[in-house]
Amino acid sequence: MSQFTDLDKLAVSTIRLLAVDQVAAANSGHPGAPLGLAPAAHVIWKQMKLNPGDPGWINRDRFVLSNGHACALLYAMLHLSGFDFKIEDLQQFRQLGSKCPGHPEFELPGVEVTTGPLGQGVSNAVGLAIAQANFAATYNKPGFTLSDSYTFTFLGDGCLQEGVSSETSSLAGHLQLGNLIALYDDNQITIDGATNVSFTEDVAKRYEAYGWEVLHVANGNEDLDGLAQAIAQAKRSKDKPTLIKITTTIGFGSLQAGSHSVHGAPLKLDDVKQLKTNMGFDPERSFVVPQEVYDLYNTQIIQPGVQQYEAWTKLVQEYSAKYPELGAEVQRRLAGDLPRDWEAALPVYKPEDDAVATRKLSEIVLQNIQATLPEMIGGSADLTPSNLTRWKEAVDFQPPASGLGDYVGRYIRYGVREHGMGAIMNGISAFGANYKAYGGTFLNFVSYAAGAVRLSALSGHPVIWVATHDSIGLGEDGPTHQPIETLAHFRALPNMQVWRPADGNEVSAAYKVALTHKHTPAIIALSRQNLPQLQGSSIEKAMRGGYVLQDADNADITLVSTGSEVSLAVEAAKVLAEKKINVRIVSLPDFHTFDQQSEEYQLSVFPDNVPIMSIEVLATSGWAKYAHESFGIDHFGASGKAPEIYKKFEFTPEGVATRAEKTVAFYKNKQVTSPLHKPF
Amino acid sequence: MSQFTDLDKLAVSTIRLLAVDQVAAANSGHPGAPLGLAPAAHVIWKQMKLNPGDPGWINRDRFVLSNGHACALLYAMLHLSGFDFKIEDLQQFRQLGSKCPGHPEFELPGVEVTTGPLGQGVSNAVGLAIAQANFAATYNKPGFTLSDSYTFTFLGDGCLQEGVSSETSSLAGHLQLGNLIALYDDNQITIDGATNVSFTEDVAKRYEAYGWEVLHVANGNEDLDGLAQAIAQAKRSKDKPTLIKITTTIGFGSLQAGSHSVHGAPLKLDDVKQLKTNMGFDPERSFVVPQEVYDLYNTQIIQPGVQQYEAWTKLVQEYSAKYPELGAEVQRRLAGDLPRDWEAALPVYKPEDDAVATRKLSEIVLQNIQATLPEMIGGSADLTPSNLTRWKEAVDFQPPASGLGDYVGRYIRYGVREHGMGAIMNGISAFGANYKAYGGTFLNFVSYAAGAVRLSALSGHPVIWVATHDSIGLGEDGPTHQPIETLAHFRALPNMQVWRPADGNEVSAAYKVALTHKHTPAIIALSRQNLPQLQGSSIEKAMRGGYVLQDADNADITLVSTGSEVSLAVEAAKVLAEKKINVRIVSLPDFHTFDQQSEEYQLSVFPDNVPIMSIEVLATSGWAKYAHESFGIDHFGASGKAPEIYKKFEFTPEGVATRAEKTVAFYKNKQVTSPLHKPF
What we know:
homodimer, 680 residues, Rossmann fold, 6-stranded parallel β-sheet, 5-stranded parallel β-sheet, EC 2.2.1.1 (chains A, B)
């Protein structure tokens, strides 16, 4: 006998029409997928653990709408299940300032991650599942299951075509993430028409190859029992993620059903009306929710969820009594606080200390702080021995059955999957519990992950890229590996820290600021080659993003630089001193942090009346914000020994000094104003 | 009986040692993969159609080393097969200025594409195979097989883990590219150690799911016959690409064989010696090629290749006699020339013509020129009706058996695979025959393809991105779809045109310049919303990258802008005129092209003594090269109706005018110098 009644069917119709009405009111949006997916959404919700009174409850089940364009469906579900989405909000779908924007945004209650760019959501879901597995392995105790939540995700053909989902799905299979359940909307339609124009692969077989459990619901439009059985079976699959292929009709019930014209354009008025009539609704009314549907959601979904929440709250109290240390740690993490004095472990350097590559200095930081910060969960896209991202005692995050590690492990072997790593880090961060995710690759290959990095910044996920081999200084690997445009790119991204520390103190400062931030991601660009410890650097100064490393009376020029070129500026200043040119030196490890300092402080770093020249072995673009002139590399690099490449491109003390001299001469007898002054 | 003799084994040993010696001489590089793959390389070469005297021969077989770090192997093969790689060149492996850089570069003779960033090469190979299929379908005639070449590629675990290869492999299977043969170096090792730490999927099954033929050679270290049989079978697979999994031992023969330590570091001296001794070579000598190996390559590879080349040359002559028009077209394309007067088809607009979205104007260009330019081969990453990239009469590039098109078709349904599209376009371009590949997506999602775009620029593949929905002007889809940092990113990339045309004439100019360039890719950023045809624009002016749209006597300010904001500048100028502020207006559709104009011309556009303010609804970064002040958007966008978003962010005539007034006031009584003046 079916576990579903006519009331469930009414609820499904209500969901369908709420989505259609939103798109119609906006005269913009995507009605097709919600019409096909409403039954699956309803069935998932009926067994979801959630509490609208605490959307951040750490043991809630998560739902990620990877095909974010179908968000009218999500807003309908959040409305019905008691989250802070009123009918009036739904009526403002896609309007400026509305709570229902054109794609779901992370900061909204009940929205787990920002989706829209295809392939990201399902990849975030892998990150959520990793975090859940780690959190459970770390804190669950016999009789105290603090964490046993699932991550559900909807994804469409587009998500499956994107490479990022291939990367993360392969890894999810490897990691045996049984807590991950993906529902694939097999509606055979994309914007270009039928999927057979470009997408004829056997998706089920591919996911089996990844090590997933694959199920199929043939009539996703109507078969609520089939959907429920598939979900139950997926939950029983403890050591494999599950892909449930649900065959649906895009725009089900619409006159345009099964056509790509229903994907991304509102239904015509008469179509909306016939849909309502056929579903037994008044064709003249919109945004209608029958009271019995509200009652169903209240009694069958919200109330049970709240009960589970209350039981869980009680459990955590008992847990804290029995395991006071762990309990305190859980409470701290849930509050989003770092441990007191964690930063005491950050190393401090003196000028007489050895010259060390900043990637190595980064390794020392990670080594020093990992024990204090159980929320730190790191990895590398298969460059561990180059990125130096793994601390000595690290346990790999691996399925216990593999014999290679455990879910309690905090080091992730991402494989050669930069974009996937970025999207997974976003998911880990979105899980909560203060997770601090970091991932290593070469700076140049952070660009592979640009789609995910952008979403870190937009969503405010404070993930950290450990981006080593940050310039031509990597040497022999040549121009395919040497970043040029990369810093300009990410510095132009809003809400993004882009650190390029010059020495050990600056590396410590970069981590200190990046780990403290709650809503800003960071890229930390690190050298392959050794760099000296600088006279004049300190963690405190560097934490301001930029500071005067070396001041001068009657300065003729300010040289501003980052990373490996700061010590070059110091050397150039010596050459210039011989020519009676007085040089101030500014180190500017992070533009974003510097921009948040007071105007007064900023002007003390870049005062009037002294011309400013920047030095960085990457593209000059973006530097004019601080410097009158820029010495950089606006062409591609070269393969060879690093010192020879530096010499070829004239990044030597003499090469810098020559340009500084020209800059001084150029501005002689001119009125020199700091670039920081702006008319608006 | 084996078709291989002891001489072949000697050749394989020679190849192995040439690779090892290069890495040893450089004391840098990757000896592991060459040691494992040398047999496969030798077997492929023995049946490859090539002519070292004409590396660009259009009907040569192509070989792409997707695992580009193994390039010591490639240089060895090119040396043996008579390309312009001398032993002295190999001895300079990874040295500055050498012909043997750390990763293979496109401009080198016999190197088909630049590889190194993983996943790109195999994806380029898909593009090469597409181009070959199209070229053959277009020009082959009964008795005149002008094109029947194969594309071979080596790829490793890393290439398979990258999402871009998943995208392109799925498409290659869909397209039934029987001319593509990929050899997967299954050596079970990546930099992080054994592949089982992150990569336990069933690769063979995955590729079967994509629709590929999958073969296996169990002993890739030694089984030359097995390799040859697999390749022969792959060639017989006419309607499927083939993946040959060759199980090898990384660093085969070395004391470190099978370990990740042999992946990316030179062998120790005693290891090199034992390797040479075991192979019957003098342990004290390096870079040794026995004469009989040269002879083998000469008689069995080079001479047969040259004979095929000569036969082909004769065939083309006969073809040209029998099909004079097609013959002339082939000759023109092989010469890399565009048809005479092709640009006559570019539309010209007058100010009184209708306001039209530049994406629509782009569609008109494509429609007008497609018949004249058979080398144009375009597509979209599943946004055809939004990008407007398909001309009316277009035939889809599809396998004939699909019933959806034909290989003679020039419109590619890429699916939702932006990165794959970018890499495939590079491959199509690298094929030769003057192919002009373009691909459509939203501007914001060009970032997904950053890895491939970078290689377009580095290699000089003149591909074109038709990048519509280029700003907040796209409206309701919101911040996940609205580019902010995107133009700053790609403008900072060397050798990259980034067009943002303001009207019909500028769209025509963008295509004219982009299609004429032989070594520079282009992004053409296009609006979703309608834009007026501008007074003062022309194709000729816009072809300079920047020009004075509207001059003024005694100008108080120069407003410089691109795309949708140029007409806004015109409106703002009217507001300012009422306040007696005289405004010059500059349109700057492409920085890269403008930078190539004479200094005199550039200074005529941005003269001294007039403050310059830029206006663009994207990040301001990069604008300081031309403007003293910038009005832009250095935060994320918003979901809503486009005009409301413009208003919210004050991109209105009044909002621009206010900032222009402040700029004028700020620079009053100051000496104003054009930002184009530079001390060095």
